[in-house]
Amino acid sequence: MSIDWSVVAAILALLLVFGGLAIRVVALGVIPGNRKPSTGMAWLLLVLLSPGLGVLAFFFFGSNKLERRRHERQQRANDLIVDRVAALPAVPIPDGLPDIVPGLVHLNQQLGSLPLSLDNTVQLLPDYRGSINAMAEAIRGAESSVDVEFYISAWDDVTAPVFEAMADAASRGVRVRFLFDHLGSRGIPGYQDFLKRLAGTDIAWHPMLPVRPLQGRFRRPDLRNHRKLAVIDGRVGFTGSQNLTEPGYNKPKNHAVGREWVELMARVTGPVVTSLAAVFAQDWYAETDEVSSVLPAETPATTPQGALTAVACQVVPSGPGYVWESNLRMFNTLLYGARRRLSITSPYFVPDESLLYSVTTAARRGVAVELFVSEVSDQFMVGHAQASYYRALLEAGVRIYLYPAPWILHGKHFTVDDHIAVIGSSNMDQRSFALNFEVSMMMLGADVVTAMREVEDGYRAASRELTSEEWSQRPMRKKYVDNVMRLTAGLQ
Q1: DSSP labels for 319-387?
Q2: Where in the sequence is the domain holding 16, given as residue range(s)?
């Protein structure tokens, strides 16, 4: 019996047609569920255009949920923090702050579980190598514990003082623990040597969110722990935007053009350090199943010269395990609460609809809004996606300042009017809101805003302002790429 291959081909063609149709129909009812409309539409467009590719991409990247074991650990740790915080006496809101502050403090605690704390000291560290040296100095004086957590980490000529101080502290009996993101650090040259050097010390270390499907650790592979923090003896803390690597990220192509990252870190002492310690303890538990005690320091740390005192601070963690997008809700609340001035620094400004509306609404109701970004982005897709928003921002009256190449302005902070500042690891992009574990710190008081404004003034002096006329004259090919990359940013 001969086979009529034309009939077989016709049947296969029909199966492909009806199979593709079935995938599209199912996707219409499944993908939009519990997603932002823009995210759902981006995924649907991909599936409708290419059902096979779309379904495959959605399988690997369509969910930001953690694997069950990790989610359960994080939930247990968060429940414990909630119970401990509930037992603490209520902290009064300092006088002289805007009316928005009490509700915002309550919101932040509801979302991130951590309370407002008073009487902290804050020292802003805009110098890249200076912040590394400040961390190393604090670690060299450690007596009981050192906890360090950074998204990207590398043991190089610039960071060596930190790692040598950690190794020395561990060798003399100090408990030293170190967390670094698995994929974030793996992309830095010398990663295997980095692991060997760590293995030769007494430091207890673990990669965060390792991708190991054969060991049951399977999740969306681009869920990352993007936090940057350090806690020494429960008395001194550091947090901000800087990774633990040299300012050119150990990459020859960066060194060849003189490209270095510009950052802002904060050194803090006081009760807010306990909140940073709680964030580290939660991440350590998620990676190791080891429970840590988080206790306030018995003796206060010395206050460095020039540090600001009596600053009220609140730490706000966020990430895939926090279903309410803590950082986005805090940011939007602050932006809508701005009355006079709003200065934003974000290397990757790719907002969702709510954040874009809050920024442009502030500008249209008369708030002086300025945005500091790099002239040239280090991320092709993100840079073009970010550029696709410039027209809407400029039309609303937002002033955009371009920090000159080859430097990469990587600071992540903003100030609102005269009494509120935020610093941390979170970008103002959809990845930081939905896919990355982040940590932000809100700081209250006129002095800390004045200090942050000095940093912003330095950015403005070094930058050039982007005009609507200049932006409208861009080549059509660049506008096309911007819009395509904007679409990919919605695939969260």
Answers
A1: STT-TT-HHHHHHHHHHHH-SSEEEEE-SS-B--HHHHHHHHHHHHTT-EEEEEEESS-S-HHHHHHHH
A2: 5-61
